[in-house]
Amino acid sequence: MRPPPAAPSAVSTFARLENDCFLRACFRQSTPHTPMWLMRQAGRYLPEYNATRAKAGSFMGLATNPGYATEVTLQPLERWPLDAAILFSDILTVPDAMGLGLSFAQGEGPRFAHPVRDEAAVAALAVPDLDKLRYVFDAVAQIRRSLAGRVPLIGFSGSPWTLACYMVEGAGSDDYRHVKTLLYARPDLMHRMLAINAQAVAAYLNAQIDAGAQAVMVFDSWGGVLADGAFQSFSLAYTRQVVAALKRTGADGQRVPVIVFTKGGGPWLEAVADCGADVVGLDWTTNLGAARARTHDRVALQGNLDPMVLFAPPEVVAREAVAVLDSFGPPQRADGGWGGHVFNLGHGISQFTPPESVSALVEAVHSHSRTLRCTPAG
Known about the structure:
The chain is of the alpha/beta class and 378 residues long. The protein has helices at 21-26, 47-56, 59-63, 66-79, 93-100, 119-123, 134-147, 160-169, 177-185, 187-211, 230-245, 269-273, 288-295, 314-328, 355-372, and strands at 85-86, 102-104, 110-112, 153-158, 215-220, 258-262, 279-281, 300-305, 341-345. It has one domain: Alpha-Beta Barrel (TIM Barrel). It contains 15 helices and nine strands. The model is unreliable at 1-10 (pLDDT under 50).
């Protein structure tokens, strides 16, 4: 397997970063306001996204074309003063490159033509040739150049466990019957699959960093479906492997923070915070202030507004955003240190979200977080 290099001359054309608020928060440094971005911020809730997707002809036509991927990545930043951009791609690009046959039917979620459900299928798995994912790395470099230093660019991947869920189920699932059956009946096969996934995810994220990603995020979207004990063995252990293998210096010589987000991971917060990541993402079921106390500010926290709040009137959106910020509390501690907070939703934004709700959210987060910095640390 040959890791692909960054696009030619990409590094030399990267502009100096103008707004580093997001990166500073990831490293628990002082910031003038709480930075924010939204999971799935380039998506179907934006009319301009839908117009670009129509031009592309399909989701995969959009995701595999660096020009279109750049266009939709930048669209939310044209509307709102968000503090980070996130690569437009899909978490399932890695298993697709393994030959499982990813497709997206109209009105349906992702589906694999060749699910992995038996010993022979697991034995056939291998870390893919990353040249098959060059369209992702080309998109990273093109987006980074197009941002022109406006805000940092986040790269991402699904976690080894989350990828395994889709690989075994063949699609999304309500009960995870196939993957949990394999986990309990043949843990040896599951561990082999997860080990391959961990190597592939680490190589994939490192290639994104080489291409210009300034932060990377591991989405453990389905870690929370596991039982206690199983989560530690089949999800967190392999996320740790990924984090340990990641480069921490980017193509421009700057530090690259790592974010780990486990949906439903609140019960294991302390263990996740010890996985080596700089930032731990939280869904809306965990109180931010309590999470900050549990982790003693040794990691930054990201989150965690319920995405459904965005269907309420603008004044309610603002009130709930303020409640999240107040829950985290003043970022500066009494001892002079800082606790990092990156405001985000507790999961991806809904395709039905009114864009004006995002306007109210961004305004409330930036304005109230500036007020919090004037609050004496307690």
